[in-house]
Amino acid sequence: MRTYLVTGGAGFIGSNYIHYMFKKYDNDIRIINVDALTYAGNLENLKDVENRDNYTFIKSYICDKVAICQIFAENDIDRVVHFAAESHVDRSIAEPEVFVRTNVLGTAVMLNCARAAWELPDGSYRKDKKFLHVSTDEVYGSLPEDENAFFYETTPYDPHSPYSASKASSDMLVKAYMDTYKFPANITNCSNNYGPYQFPEKFIPLMINNALQGKKLPVYGDGKNVRDWLYVEDHAKAIDMVQEQGRLFETYNIGGHNEKQNIEILNIILDTLQEMLPDGDPIKANVSSVLINYVSDSKGHDRRYAIAPDKIKAEIGWEPETMFKEGIRKTIRWYFENEQWMKNATSGDYQKYYEEMYKNR
Ligand code: NAD
Ligand code: TDX
Question: Which of 197, 202, 215 to mutate to test the pocket of ligand 2 (most atoms within 8 A of CB)?
Answer without folding.
Answer: 202
